[in-house]
Structures are given as structure tokens and as C-alpha cells.
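Subject: for your reference before the review

Hello V.,

The reviewers asked for a structural picture of the protein, and I figured it would be easier to keep everything in one thread rather than splitting it across files. Below is the amino acid sequence we used in the manuscript, unchanged from the supplementary table.
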Amino acid sequence: MMNHLQHAALPIDTLGIVECRTIASGVSLTDAMLKAAPVDLLRAATVCSGWYLIFIAGDRDAVETSVALAAESGRGILGSYVLSNLSPQVLEALKKPSRAEPGDAVAIIEARYSSIGVAAADRAVKHAPVRLIRLVPGEGITGKSYFVLCGTVAAGEAGAEAAREMLGKHLVDAVVLAKPEEALLATLGK
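And here is what came back from the structure prediction:
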């Protein structure tokens, strides 16, 4: 079992995300998902609150097959998503945060669950000219997720609005800061 996001052999176009209520269900579903279709396991690990988060990648049909198996299992799934044409920014932010630039406006969007937060980050960067500098799926924040967007104020607001629309009742909070202090900017990409 891998604890960190790994590079797949081919460029990732479709990402599957499954978030489980229990570790045992998560481990069992990870095994079943890998057996159901030829997908790459990018991450399978616990997150806060004892939940289990699974990231797989592959061609769209294979990822859809694996995620559907998990979603239809009746095993206490908190959320599941298939993201095709994944923005490269999402994968990069999952691997390593980057830094905001002085003068950037920032948007911080917080979601109730890890899986939907990743999906909302993908939507935000596809709908606004922003840079995704950080994406935290459930680690150390009781299973929630958050992400940080940088760019102009208008771009940050557009990205936050796209995320708000997708998150709906799963939105915890979203803010856009027009001119954050440089000391704060330095902490957002850590």
C-alpha cells in the first residue's frame, strides 16, 4: 500500500477518487477496484477521522468501472468522483504545493470531504485563470479538504464561485483576499 502520490507511467487524464467511512472498507475496496479494471493506484491511505481515501488513474472506462464498483458496494462511501481531462494543476498540487507571488490575490475554499474538494479544485482551475498552489485532501483537518487559488481578484472570485457551485451543501467556507500580507502568502504554499 502506498502512502504518497506516485507518478504513473503515462500522463494522467482520468482520476478516480473514493472516500470511505472506515479503514477496513477502504482497504477492501482498494483491492476490489484494482482487480475490477486495469488502473494505477496513486494513493490509498487513511485520513483524519479514520476515513480512507483512494486515488486511482487510468483510461476513462477503466477508472469509471473501478469507481462504480466502489460506489455500488454499499460499504459506507462518503464520496466518489471520476475526473476526466484532469487539470495538470490538480496533480501537481497533490504532489507538491507551490508558492503564491507577491501581489497575488488568493482564494481559499474549504470542503466538508476530501473527495469533493479535489473535484471542486479541478472545476475551479478549469473555469478561471488561476493557479492552484495547494490542495490538502483530509490530512490533519478531520477529513475535510481545502485548496488555495492565486491570481487576480476577479480570477480568484471566479474560481471560488465555480467551486461554490459544485460544492453546494458540502462547502464549509470560501474567502477571497485581494491583497494578503506577504508573511501570510509565504505560509499558504507550505
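For the response letter, the relevant points are probably these. The radius of gyration is 16 Å. DSSP finds six helices and eight strands in the chain.

Happy to draft the paragraph if you're swamped.

O.
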